[in-house]
Structure formats: C-alpha cells, structure tokens
Amino acid sequence: MHFITLDSETDFDGWRKAARALALNDVTPSEVSWRVAGASPELFEPIAPPLEPPQGTFSVPAKFVELAEIAILHHNPERFALLYRLLWRLRGNHDLLAIATDSDVADVTTMARAVRRDEHKMHAFVRFREIGREQKSHFVAWFEPEHHIVELAAPFFARRFADMPWSILTPDVCAHWDGHAISITPGVAKSEAPTADRLEGTWRSYYASIFNPARLKVQAMQKEMPRKYWRNLPEASLIKPLIEGAGRTASAMIANAASEPHKPQKRLEPSKASDKADDMPHKHADDIETLREEAANCRACPLYKNATQTVFGEGAQTARIMLVGEQPGDKEDLAGKPFVGPAGQMLDRALDEAGIDRSKVYVTNAVKHFKFVPRGKIRLHQKPNTPEIRACRQWYERELAAIKPELVVAMGATAAQSVLGKITPINKNRGHPIDLDDGTRVLVTVHPSYLLRLPDAEARASEYRRFVQDLKIAAGVLRKSAHAA
Amino acid sequence: MDVQRKLEILADAAKYDASCASSGTEKRDSSDGKGLGSTAPGMGICHSYAPDGRCISLLKVLLTNACNYDCLYCVNRTSSNVPRARFTVDEVVKLTIDFYRRNYIEGLFLSSGIIRSADYTMEQVVSVARKLREEHHFRGYIHLKTIPEADDALIAEAGKYADRLSINIEMPLENSLAKFAPEKNVRAIRRTMGRLRLKLDEARESDKAATKAKPPRFAPAGQSTQMIIGADAADDKTILDTSANLYGSYRLKRVYYSAFSPIPDASRALPLVAPPLVREHRLYQADWLMRFYGFDAGEIVDEAKGMLPLDIDPKLAWALRHRDRFPLDVATASRDELLRVPGFGTRAVDRIIATRRLTSIRLADLARLHIPQKKALPFIVLSDFSPSPHLIDGAGLKERFKPKATQLGFGF
C-alpha cells in the first residue's frame, strides 16, 4: 500500500505529481491511500517500497486537467482516490471523458459541478460589512463554503472590488485583498467577523419591498438559496415574517376594492408630434407628408399587425421618376424607410451607373407593410397576395397623384401587378415604356432583390447589366420628354 | 422623506417588472485599479431570492413613481392612490454604489414613471447611468428602461452606458393595450424596438469588422421586454405568436411573462384574483421550447384548445399529441428529434450524442444523464429497453403523467 500525503485540501500540484509517479510505476488505484497533512494519521501504516523516480511521460486530455483541478476542491475525502482511478483508466481509454454514462466520469463531473455551484453561490452570497469610514474603511465578510473554494473564488472579488481593501473570513482559510494582491491566511472563528453594517437596514427594507406577497413561491426560493446559506445573509431573517404576512397582505389587496381614482393635474408637455402639427402651415390633402401620416395608421389589410410600421414612399415632391418596389424588407421595416437594406444598396449602385440621382427620384413600394413569418431569430420574407396588393393600391394611386412623375418604374412582379393593374410578366414587357389609359408612362424591370438571390455569379452580373440597361432607358425617356418640353 | 422611505416606495413600485437578469454582457472588471465593479459574462449572479421565488440581482427601482399615464394594470398609474416619491440622481447613484460594495447586487435596473415628457423622463434615467459610468467609473451591470417616444440621441446615450435596454410590450394584443393603457401605443413601442435593433446590429457588426471607425457601443446585453399574463383575454397561442414575432423582429434576448397580480389600490376593471403562476410557468417552458428546442410557436399549443395544459409541461403535451413519432431509438435519432423527447434537456442531449459514438446507452445510464425515467421511458428505445407497444398507444399514457391528486386534509 502506498500512502500519499498532500500538503493541503487544495494541493492539486502535489496530487498531480504523486499521481504521475504512481501511474508511471504502474501502481494500481487499489494500492494507494490518500490523505492530507495534519489530518489524523492512520495507526498502522504498512510501509510501501519507495516509488522509483518517474521514468518517461504520458499524456492525458487537457479537459481532464481542467476537470480535476476543480473536482479536487470538493469536500469528499474520496476525491483524490477517485481522480487517480479516472486517470488510471484514461491511460487505457483516451475517450473515456466523453462517456457521460461512465460512473467514474459521472461522479467526477458531478463533483466539479458541485464545486462550481458553491463558488457561484459564494460570489453571490458573500456580504461585506464596512469597518471604519471613508478613506480608512475596510470591508469584511464572514462566509461558510461547503467545499474548499476560497482560493478559487477570491480572484473574482479582487477583480470586482479592486479599489477597496477587503477580507473574506471562513472557518477553513481566509482571503484578503489590500489593493494589490490576494493573501491567504488560516481560518478563524465567526466571532472575529464584524456583526453589523450601517447599510443593512436599508438593504433589508429593499428586500421586503421588492417581494411580491401575491406570489409566494417558497420552494423556488429555497432551490436557489438553500437554507444553509441563510445564517450569514442579513436579509434572511425577514423570510419567515414575510411568508407569514403574505397571505394577509395579498387577500387584503384582493378584498379592498379600489378607492376613488385620484385625478392629479396633468403636466404633460406637448409632444413633438403635436408641436409639428401646430407649427406647420396648412397644406392641401394630397401633400406627401399628409399622406404619410394617414398611411401610418392604415388597417386596410392584416399585414400591419405583425409589422413594425408602415413604410411609406420617400423622395422629392418634384421627382420626375417614381420607382416602385414590392414591399419593405426586414431592415426597411425597422427603419421605416424604403430601400435601405441590401436591395436598396444594389438599387443605389445601379441608379448611379445609369446616371440617375437617387435624391431626385421618389421611391416607394406596392405594398407598404413587411409580410413575413418569424423563424427563430430571423424573419422570412413572404410574397404579398393579390388582396393585399389591391388593399394597398390606394396609397400608390395617391402618391402618383401627389408626385405626378413622368415615368413610373415598376420593379418586380408585384410592383408590375399593382402599377399596371394586372399580372404582367417582366421579361416579355421590359425594355420599352408602356403608356396606360390614364396617361401614366410605365417601365417594368426586375426587382433588385431578384439579383441578390441569383446563386450563379455570372448570371448575377449579366442580370445586373440588364437592370442598369433598363434604368438607362428610364433616364433616356426623361431626357426625351425634357427636350419635347 | 428619507432615502430609506423613498426606497420602500420606489422598490415597491418597480417589483412588477419581472426582469432581473444580469447576464450576457461584455467582460469588464476594475483590476486596472480605477473604478469599481465587474461583470460576470455568460451567466449573471443572483445575490438573493425573495419568497416569491424571484431572484434579486439588481437594485430594481423607479426614479419616480409619479406618472402621467393611466395604465389600469399598473400600480403607478396616475389615478392610483399609492404614496409617491422621487429619488434625486445622486441618491440612486449613492445607493447603487453602497449596495454594490457590500456585494448585495450586480448593478442597477432603473425605470421611471413618465413625468413631463418622454424626453425629459429618458434624460433623467440616462443621467443616473451617465454619472455612475463617467464620474464613479462604475463597471457593474446597468439595465435601463427605454421610454418609447424618446429622442434618438437619448436612446443612443442610454445604449452607450447600459448593458441592457428594455421596453415593455405590456399586452399580447394591440387592442388590450389600447383599452388598458390609453396613453401607450403598440406602434410607438415597436418602432422603438426596431430602432434599438438597428443600433444593436450596427454595434455588433462593428465588433466583427475592426476596420472602419467603430460605431458607438450599444447595450451589449441586448434588449428585452415583458408581457402581462392574465389581465386580458389573450390565449396562450396568441401570447406565443406575439413572442415569436418579437424574437424574430427585434432579436430580443428575452420575453418575460408576468402573471398579473393584485396590486395595492387596483383598478376595478381588472381581475382581482390570485396571479396565474402555473400558467406563467408553462409559458416560460414554451418560450424555452421555441428558443432552445427547435419548436415553432405554432406547434406548441394545441390549435383546438389555444391554451397550454396546466397539469403537464408543453413538451410532454406535444409528445402525447404526436405519438406516431415515438418511440425514438436513442442510438440513432437526430439531435433535433432527441430534443423533442419529454425529459431530455439540451445538456442531456449533448451528452447522449457524445456518449453514443463510443458506447451504447442503457436503462441504468438515464440517472447519470439526469433524465427522469418515468417521463422519458414511454418515448424511447435503449439498447436494453423498449417500451411496451400498448403503452404508447394506450389511453393510460396520459394518466401516467397526471400529478397525483392531493387529498384535502381534515382536522382531528
């Protein structure tokens, strides 16, 4: 039998060194007994032959070292032996740690999780009490961890409270911070710790006030804040009276009918919207800004329900070209402006190449709400149907009447359907202006998002050139009408 | 009025906001010796729990509970007769730092009643965060409530200082909000959520591409919202559809569900009954199914009923409605399929997938995977177990999961 004595309960380096020597000497786990210096010695210690200095080396997965460093802090005295057994078995099966159903793996994992949880609870439940005031103050806490976690948990407090000296006292060991370094000293008795702090009364009244007596869930509380921690939490003495009073308070709230409503004088400053309304000179009904305000409350089809807002047309009131797209996309819906997303960038580039100044055109969509279905964190675009296109056409008609453009460019099938009043195939009808009975001159082309969806780079480039070509035709139509005028 | 009395009033006024998370933000600490505080990236820290089962992570207070709005469900509505108080900016700052130094809290969650105007209120809220960050170099967590109509510059500044921003959608249905909160407007709430998402996206994209001038920091822990459950007539299907819409549209980190609970001096227009806590719990479970288990909002609730069952969890209820998909062979089923087995959590599924490549999974292993046997067994095949074919088809299966009826006690 080999007796290994480690320097302390948290002596991972000692364990690692001994385990390495044992394994290299092929000492089986059942031949080893582990203990910690200072703990009660066994009465009869059979002498084992001294270990040979380790020859050679062997490797273990990095994950094992991470796991063992944490699990070794568990209070279970069997942990050293268990970790050695796992190490022993890992030499024969490198994948062992991936087998969550192996009992040694499960035990060590459970231990490591218990240590991490205790560390997390220490971060949460340490309560500092201030000794002295202002420049000379020192913050001291008393805590009773379940596992050997003080050294593990201390750096968290050093990073968080770097600018104040603090000490965390425990029965096991104590950690101190002087503003520069952490030091560890032996454990002390609880009587060494301060017993009060000037803020505790305020903290306790916060705890009582944030509690909602109408929803008692005592078990949920105890699951996360087990009783063993209560004795060191200044707020915990309130738990019992709060629970006892909760029923009374809640039924009183239910029983008391509301009192007469209190009607204070409102001091609400006029909102910006109403400011604007007052300041603006009265304009005739078909002004674009008036239309935009009216359309913001449109309920003509159900699409408004799931969308963020109506995305109305935008551009110069004097525009000679009106570009009509299908509907706003994800980004347009958020921003409230047409063609600001990827398709909008594509459009800007093409307009530029065709020699059309975007600031001088009016840009809008056939349908003014974004139609989509949510899929997790994204929204999948859906094509608007005919009733939705029809319901929205009134806005296009009124925009058309307000802007009176010389040319309407309908981009994509939906826009073509709305502008021309019937389903119109793009490819058969593109490339030349179409004159409608009401005098509107229309050019149809593809929607820029169609170009974005083409998977083949070559096809994308050639379709893009055709799109720019169509826009050049539009520019040409304008030039001609300018000459004619 | 002393600060402690103000704190009682303004914490009492803030407690109906369920959110208290301090998670998911950037990594910060004060080890450079300048300033105070740190964040716990990944998970937050709950410093205490109240007997209502809710975590206390942040100092959650209103700046003032005076409010011009008259939202019927709200304890702070203008027509309520509750006592009113208002903190000064310095009082909140000092309280936050005093509490933080004693390790009571992770930081501050500040909200406010609407006073004077949206911009004025937002400016007051932002000035607390500004002072904490700029003057006290506070590096703890800050969650600010965003006022829907507030100016873009104020929202940008809020995002500069805060870890998280939130705007409450309040009601699952647009017309309920119009009825219960006449001054609020779903459209304004959604527009501002949209504004927040654009700013969040912009800040996030700049983290990836470190080439151009960095757009300003903006709320690294994202945005969240809250819906009140049980004050209006919306069913669970409507609620989950609204959540799915909000998650997809604004990339919310969380939708909180808050069972409507009786408040002091409540309005007569609302149900003054015990809060539907079990329903709230089931909605949270359903929300988890959407976010982590690959379920669509539409399939979680039984279309015919519109409500989640209260006696069993929504995943089990779904499995009982889709028995033809079971039993599933744990050795070969895909990850997506395994996630739909009652009793299988995401962590258990990950472990199963890692383990089954190396060895077969047996009945005795379920305990080591922390899987409740009783719940999972009717739905799975293991290397040494398969359920009786009568079990999955039998009417008794549902009965198996009904909670035991509790006998009413009688006094001796």
TrEMBL record, chain A:
Region span, Disordered = 256-284
Q: Which residues form a coiled coil?
A: none
- Does the keyword Transcription feature in the UniProt annotation? no
Q: Which InterPro entries match?
A: DNA_repair_put (IPR023875), DUF4130 (IPR025404), UDG_Type-4/5 (IPR051536), Ura-DNA_glyco_family4 (IPR005273), Uracil-DNA_glycosylase-like (IPR005122), Uracil-DNA_glycosylase-like_sf (IPR036895)
**Keywords, ordered alphabetically:** 4Fe-4S, DNA damage, DNA repair, Hydrolase, Iron, Iron-sulfur, Metal-binding
Pfam families named among the record's database cross-references:
DUF4130, UDG
Keyword check for Iron-sulfur, yes or no.
Answer: yes
Task: Please list the GO terms describing molecular function.
Answer: 4 iron, 4 sulfur cluster binding; deaminated base DNA N-glycosylase activity; metal ion binding
Compositionally biased tracts (Basic and acidic residues): 260-284
Location of the Uracil-DNA glycosylase-like domain: 312-472
Q: Which GO terms describe its biological process?
A: DNA repair
Instruction: List the signal peptide residues.
Output: none
Family designation: Belongs to the uracil-DNA glycosylase (UDG) superfamily. Type 4 (UDGa) family.
Q: What is this protein called?
A: Type-4 uracil-DNA glycosylase
| Species of the source | Bradyrhizobium jicamae
Automatic annotation (TrEMBL), chain B:
Q: Name one GO molecular function term.
A: metal ion binding
Per its record, how is this protein called by name? Biotin synthase
The record places domain Elp3/MiaA/NifB-like radical SAM core at 57-286
SUPFAM superfamilies registered for this protein in UniProt: Radical SAM enzymes, RuvA domain 2-like
> Which domain of life does the protein's organism represent?
Bacteria
Which cofactor(s) does the record list? [4Fe-4S] cluster
Q: What Pfam families does its record include?
A: Radical_SAM
Name the UniProt key words of this record, in alphabetical order.
Iron, Iron-sulfur, Metal-binding, S-adenosyl-L-methionine
